[in-house]
Each structure stands twice: as structure tokens, then as C-alpha cells.
Specification:
The chain is an alpha/beta fold and about 200 residues long. It has seven helices and seven strands. Bound molecules: S-adenosylmethionine. The site of S-adenosylmethionine (SAM) has 21 residues, from helix 1.
């Protein structure tokens, strides 16, 4: 785990604001196939920008908002009235969930900050139920995001989102199947499934 990242995101918690409208995120999550009885993990949930739209779609299931930063999660808890949401402070590289817990995992605007992405993908596969799906999602392409991070002189300077074809290869290496990718200037969407067997 990166202590520097935890400190950085803890300091950012009061001011972090994701400007993407909740409605667009809800459409994206519907497109991803979130169902009302799903167990969903929002990994790197921050202040819950995605937790709220997820909670409007999940009725009888549960949304778990997980993050490395306890300050981010405290802000999320204060700001949100997400009925089906639960908050867990954990590192994506060693998550505190049992095998085959989730139907869906969404990693929104977070993947480049995870210090050991391969380990995180292995964890995602472990905690997904058979036929479950993971989505790694950003509102811009890797080139734009990496350029943006490189201009910030702090712990995220070298946080890189891999090109979608590189992430696809990593996912395949770890054991995911049915990988679909879209990468264009205003969207990075990489989803993958876990086989039944
Ligand atoms: C750029 S913010 C995005 C937050 C939220 N998804 C949003 O879009 O508003 C990245 C988040 O990832 C979290 N994060 C970074 N590394 C992590 C890790 N290894 N495990 C879990 N969360 C992590 C940070 O604490 C931060 O809240």
C-alpha cells in the first residue's frame, strides 16, 4: 500500500469534486448492466460520485463503497443518503472481502492510482462471483489523463492509466474473459468477465 497516496487522498477529501452529472453516470451503469439485486463494489469510491447513481439502480442488492482513504469515505458518508450503500476502508491490492462476493466491480477514475495494478486485478477476479463483471472506466482516454497527471507536481505525477489494449492484455493474463474495450478522447471503458468454471 502507498502511504503517500493515502495521505494525499486524505488531504484532498474535503475539496475533491467529480463534476460528471450523476444522471450520466447512472446511464453508464445501466449500460454496464447493473441490476437491482446485484452486489456491487465501487472500488476507489472517493466521496461517492458513483455510489449515488449505483444506489439508485440497486434496490434489493447492495453497493459497497470502498476506498484507501478513510477521509474520503467519511465525506461520502456525510454527504450521501445512499440507502443501500456500505463503506469499507481497504486497499484494492489486498481487499478485505471474501471470495465470490460481488456480481459487479466498478473502478471509476481510480485505476492509475493503484500501485500494484496486477495484484488488484487478481483480487478483483477472486472476489467476483462466477459470471461477474469488472469495469475500469474514465471520462477521458489514457493519453489525456496521463498528460494531466504528469503536470501535477505531487504523488500522482507518475500514476499512469495503461492504454486500453495493454489493460486488455493484463486482464487476459490474470484470467478474465469476454474483454471489451472502448478508448476515445472522452471515454475509457474496459470491461471483462469471470468465467463460470
Ligand atoms: C481520483 S479519486 C476518484 C474518486 C471517485 N471514484 C470519483 O470519481 O469521484 C481516486 C480515489 O481512489 C482512491 N484510491 C487510490 N488508491 C487506492 C487503492 N489502492 N485502493 C483503494 N482506493 C484507492 C483514492 O483514495 C481516491 O478516493
Amino acid at each position: 500500500m502507498s502511504r503517500e497516496h493515502r495521505f494525499f487522498f486524505n488531504d484532498l477529501a474535503e475539496t475533491w469534486h467529480n463534476k460528471t452529472p450523476a444522471q450520466s453516470l447512472a446511464y453508464a451503469m445501466q449500460y454496464f448492466g447493473i441490476k437491482e439485486d446485484d452486489m456491487v463494489l465501487d472500488i476507489g469510491a472517493g466521496r461517492g460520485a458513483l455510489t449515488v447513481p449505483l444506489s439508485t439502480l440497486v434496490k434489493t442488492g447492495r453497493v459497497v463503497a470502498a476506498d484507501l482513504s478513510d477521509n474520503m469515505l467519511s465525506s461520502a458518508r456525510k454527504m450521501l443518503n445512499a440507502e443501500h450503500a456500505h463503506y469499507v476502508c481497504t486497499d484494492a491490492c489486498a481487499v478485505s472481502f471474501r471470495d465470490e462476493t460481488f456480481d459487479k466491480i466498478v473502478c471509476y477514475s481510480t485505476f492509475p492510482h493503484i500501485q500494484n495494478p496486477l495484484r488488484a486485478l487478481v483480487e478483483f477476479l477472486r472476489i467476483l462471483k462466477p459470471s461477474g463483471k469488472v469495469l475500469i472506466f474514465h471520462n477521458c482516454c489514457s493519453r489525456k489523463l496521463n498528460h494531466y497527471h504528469a503536470r501535477i507536481p505531487n504523488v500522482v505525477t507518475f500514476d499512469k492509466l495503461p492504454k486500453s489494449e495493454h489493460l486488455q492484455a493484463l486482464l487476459r493474463h490474470v484470467g478474465f474473459t469476454e474483454i471489451q474495450t472502448v478508448e476515445k478522447p472522452d471515454l475509457y471503458w474496459v470491461e471483462a468477465g469471470k468465467d463460470v468454471s
